[in-house]
Amino acid sequence: MTSGGDLLIFLALATPLFAAVAIYAVGRMPDVRETLTVIASIALSIVTISMFMRVGAGNPPVLTVARPLAGLEIAFRLEPLGALFAVMASALWGVNSLFSIGYMRGKREANQTRFYVCFAFAMFAVMGIAMAANLFTLFIFYEVLTFSTYPLVTHAGDAAARRAGRIYLATLVGASLVLFLPGIVGVHLAAGSTTFIPGGLLTGKVNVVTGNVLLLLLVFGAAKAALMPLHGWLPAAMVAPAPVSALLHAVAVVKAGAFVILKTSAYIFGSDLISALPAATWLLWVAAGTIVIASLVAMTKDELKLRLAWSTVGQLAYVTSAALLPAAAGLVAGGLHMLIHAFAKITLFMCAGAIYVATGASKVSEMRGLGRSMPIVFACFLAGALCVVGLPPFAGMWSKFLLITAAFGTQTWITAAAMIVSSLLGLLYLAPVAIRALLPPAGDGSSGGFIRPYGAPGPVVAALAITAAGCVALFLFADAVAAYLAPIARRVP
Amino acid sequence: MSFILLHFNYVAVAILMMAGLFVVVSSSNLIKRMIGLAIFQTSTGLLYISLGKVSSGTAAITVDAASPEKQALANHLDPAYVAQYGVAGVVYSNPLPHVLILTAIVVGVATLAVGLAIAVRVREAFGSVEADEIEVLSRLESAQAGSQA
Amino acid sequence: MISFETLYAAAPALTAHAPVLMVAGPLIAACVAALSPTARTSWMISVTGSMFAAWMALAITGEVARHGAVDYYIGGFAPPLGIAFYIDGLGAMMALLVSSAGVMASIYSGHSLAAEVRAEKHTHVQAAFLLCQAGLLGLVSTGDAFNAFVFLEVSSIGAYALVAIGEKRDRRALPAAFNYLIMGTIGATLYVIGIGFLYAATGTLNMADLSARLATLGDSSVVQAGFAFIVVGLGIKAAMFPLHGWLPGAYSFGPSLIVIFLAATATKTSIYLMARFIFDVFPDGAAFGRNFIAWVLAPLAATAAIVCSIQATFEREIRRILAFSSVAQVGLILLGLSLATILGASAGLFYLMAHALMKMTLFMAVGGLAISLPARRLDDFAGVARDAPWSATAFAAGALSLAGAPLTLGFLAKWRLLEAALNAGQIWIAATVAIASLLTLLYVGRMLEAIFFRSAPAGAPRAVEAPVGVLAPVLVLAGLNIWFGLDASLPEQLAGAGAKALLAGAP
After folding, report:
1. pLDDT at residue C311, as a whole number
2. Same domain, B36 and B13
């Protein structure tokens, strides 16, 4: 092992795990519990940032933990995409914890300890996914993530929540078992291992038919990426409290799906094989369809969180498209979009949560005029919305620009067209939410309906302001991130 | 026809086997079912013994003209038989199936005993040895367990 | 790392008589237990007898790993006259499985029996349990086809009596036991008839001799009839779909002690014997054998895996859910074996061990909860996790393993099965495995949801955490589910050795 890299991986896994246990132990004392969560997220961020630096310096941490069966290893190895994902997740965990504290206390939710424990546990799974050195390890943590977030989705504990939880589990685990796992086993049989190798593990090892089947199995199997027709769980999971939605739709679950597709494309299939497989083209059509349909459905939803969820379905299909563009043209843009969308979407969800906790309003039609009392929240919402749409000076512009350029560059017109159409639609269904809220209230002019006289709790507003600032900051540093990610698209001779 | 007559023992085996199995399946009385099971098991005994029988063979007692003790044993054999084949020419039936079936009979008796014991307990618990009545009572019990909670 | 190497070191030096001692130990202990004065002494005798058997099994496994198969002639009479014990990699694996299940069940029974059976009957229960164990151990070590029948019945008679003993809790145990007895005896008798046909055709009962002589006989109709009788007879014992009718009743009404032990071993040993006949005794190339595997065994196994999983989803009683799940999992084990490749057989055997471990954990956890909560329906277990967190956690470990969640043994077992199916080019088997896993998840999800995420209705009887004597073995097994999920080299090597012994010449 080279100079403590393994220690970093160990810490990245142990910190959230230890946090989960410790939070459980001190569950009776809310102050200690929540302090622990914040401390753990800061510690984890430090660890992931140092891993990020090491990867940048060309000295990636490596660790093999166990060998459950002959030929199968639970092993970890960082690469730029995973390092970026880890940093993003740990940083947003911190912000989200801040938000959770305000939200959960403000709403006086039950079972708060279970909430924080599962949250920490989900971060453990995310770290495992980000650092996995092979598909086998990745699959393990992918499933851990599903199971650890199930109690979060069903947090409310009522019939609706349980029903959503069932859909959530059935879709995600179902796709994993029926599609993803056979796909991984197939890769293992075809290549003799499942290790992520720059340039593609399967290059030269499979024929077109097998390659097609494996690509379809893996891309649809990673159902967390919500490619249609396996997107149903995402809107259903909207019954969960806002911090959970923020985690699911910005940090952990959906990004894990997008990450898996990017990683599979870059390290399992490789650009040459992807360019040669007809299935990649079919999937681009499916992704383009998903982008447009999701945007159209989002326009019809009055429930704000539902509208955001459908928007997420569309945005995830952007990343899927990026991963499947020929000649690795979209990989860097896809990685960048994953990061930027995370910041934008978490801002939007936290805003939705802030509005809900302050006023009890969850429908777009109820929000007219609320912005007068909650200017910061709605300003941040506008920032997040414009970032998702892709207007300057928000970071979303860069990733969209790169994505559409790549689609044009590879003459994938369908993808380019879908992205442009959906951006316009996005402007129509996201921006008006904020604008209408900032307009004068209708009727008698009173901004009635506030549950809390002082608006959203302080930590909530602070959290969403931080991520909104992130959307702007990334506008300035997008180039650096893209340069950092460049190695993943490099073709290995 | 002559094939069947020559193999009448196997025919008997088949008839017993089917009869036993039929009683087990068709009867709802637990005791009758045990009887059917016993007949079914017995048929295997007959099968094995038939297998071991060597035509015109005799009991498996070694006969040796040189040894006076064994010669003495041979005296119990049918003298006409010994006269016909000579001491050295005696043909034995295969003794192994007998041994096997002895074991199988023991097993069968043990099974029968356990089965009858359970039947007695069933009678004490349900007041009946008719399978269909017990079935009704069991169903009722399952339904009650459902409505209690 | 637990592996063969550790077994070398751990295994005690093989006494020359280990194979017979392994069987005789529990047999003698059974007599002593029946005569012992109090419930407590009989329990101690039971634990001692089981541990002795496990020790011998360990010794034999070590010996087999070092020097290959063990031959033992009872009383010094060599076959074909005498009865031979023959323990190869497969037999050693099964012996280790049966005896360790016996140890766990006997330790567990110390507290669980008190709640289920009147104290004065404990001596008899322990005796019957030891008898059952001795029978199964004999079954997996004997090399004689008829002897196998005797051992099969010795174990079964013990099991019938033990299921019937569950009447104190619920009188429906009696008809269930009776039904089990009828089905089991029919199965055993069919097996004996089949052996009779083989004996008629070959004139031997020794499995090795049978194998050699059958290879020269070809497709004789007597041999085929014998094959059919044997397979159907053992199919009943192994609860092979659609011959599984006895299993749900026996598993849901028997006392925990025997249900745990049966769930882990009874159907498995019959599968072992069936595999022994299909792959080892009958000639490899025989057309009827291959046709049977391809057109009867595999389709029935696949049907079992799907249909019984669905049935488990609709059952209301928790033990019946687990029982139907067992039938479905037997289907998956047979699917692995039906691939008839080394990889497939080792996957099947690996799954066999994994299933034994997880089902044992589940039945133990349920039994531990049932001590204080005399309920059978899933709804009655709602919210149990609050009252008995440790039992519930152990249950969760077993259930996740059953569902094939990663980081558990069940996941690795499913992986191996999928891998073997795809490797053999049997896509439909891989698809069946995947769909069956999905269905498994449905009923596992139902159980976990009830136990962890629902709250008990007001006024309902509440569970109390199981006593330590019950909890300890449950937690050990739950831990093993996870431990082997991280390092399955021991079961994998055992299964690999078993598969090699089973399919000496196969690819």
Report:
1. 92
2. yes
CA-nearest residue of chain B to C144? Answer: B100
Tally of domains within chain B:
2
Q: Is B39 on the interface with C (CB under 8 A)?
A: no
CATH number of domain containing B142: 1.10.287.3510
Which residue among C415, C441, C449 places its CB closest to the CB of A185? C415
Residue C44 vs residue A67, higher pLDDT = C44
Q: Is residue B92 helix, strand or coil?
A: strand
Whether C308 has a pLDDT exceeding 80, the answer reads yes
| CA-based nearest distance B96→chain C, Å | 9
Taking the C-alpha atoms of residue B32 and residue B23, their distance in angstroms, rounded to an integer, is 7
Going by pLDDT thresholds of 50, 70 and 90, the confidence category of residue B85 is low
DSSP summary character for residue A303: B
The CA distance from C228 to C234, in Å, is: 10
Contacts of B19 in chain C (CB under 8 A): none
Please count the other Cβ atoms lying within 10 Å of the Cβ belonging to residue B76.
9
B71 and B105 belong to one structural domain: no
Binding-face residues of A in 28-67 toward C, CB within 8 A? 66-67
Other C-beta atoms closer than 10 Å to the C-beta of C217 total 14
Omega into C299 within 30° of 0, i.e. cis?
A: no
d(CA A48, CA A90): 7
Evaluate whether C71 touches C99 at the Cβ level (below 8 Å). no
ipTM, 2 dp: 0.87
pLDDT of residue B116: 94
Judge: C486–A68 Cβ closer than 8 Å, yes or no: yes
> Reduced to 3 states, what is the DSSP secondary structure of residue C144?
strand
Looking at the structure, tell me whether residues B132 and B104 fall in a common domain.
yes
Task: Assess whether B35 and B64 both reside in one domain.
Answer: no
Q: Which regions of chain A are under pLDDT 50?
A: 1-2, 444-447, 493
Q: Which residues 129-148 on chain B approach chain C with CB closer than 8 angstroms?
A: 131, 134-135, 138, 141-142, 145-146
**Cα of B55 to nearest chain C Cα, Å:** 15
Residue in B with minimal Cα distance to C165: B118
Q: Is A411 left (phi over 0), alpha (psi -120 to 50) or beta?
A: left
Domain boundary residue, one of B44, B73, B92: B92
User: Is a pLDDT exceeding 70 seen at residue B89?
Assistant: no
Nearest alpha-carbon partner for C139 in C252, C268, C28, C37: C268
Average pLDDT over residues C183-207: 91
Tell me what pLDDT residue B147 has: 46
Question: Are residues A177 and C434, on separate chains, in Cβ contact within 8 Å?
Answer: yes
Nearest CA of chain C to the CA of A336: how many Å?
A: 30
- Evaluate whether chains A and C are touching (3 or more beta carbon pairs less than 8 Å apart): yes
Q: Is A190 on the interface with C (CB under 8 A)?
A: no
Interface of A with C in 144-163 (CB under 8 A): 144, 147, 151, 154, 157, 162
- B33-64 pLDDT, tens digit each: 999 999 999 999 888 888 877 766 666 666 66
Same domain, B106 and B123: yes
Please report which confidence band the pLDDT of residue C200 belongs to, taking 50, 70 and 90 as the band edges. Answer: confident
Quickly state the pLDDT bin for C222 (edges 50, 70, 90). confident
Q: Which domain holds residue B36?
A: 2-53+94-148
CB contact under 8 A, C407 and A181: no
Residue of B nearest to C181 (CA): B115
Same domain, B45 and B20: yes
**pLDDT tier for residue C289 given thresholds of 50, 70 and 90:** confident
Within a 10 A sphere around the Cβ of A303, how many other Cβ atoms?
A: 15
Using a CB-CB cut-off of 8 Å, the residues of chain B touching C154 are 107
Q: Are residues B125 and B140 in the same domain?
A: yes
SS3 A363: strand
- Is there a single domain that holds both residue B35 and residue B108? yes
Contact C27, C131 (CB under 8 A): yes
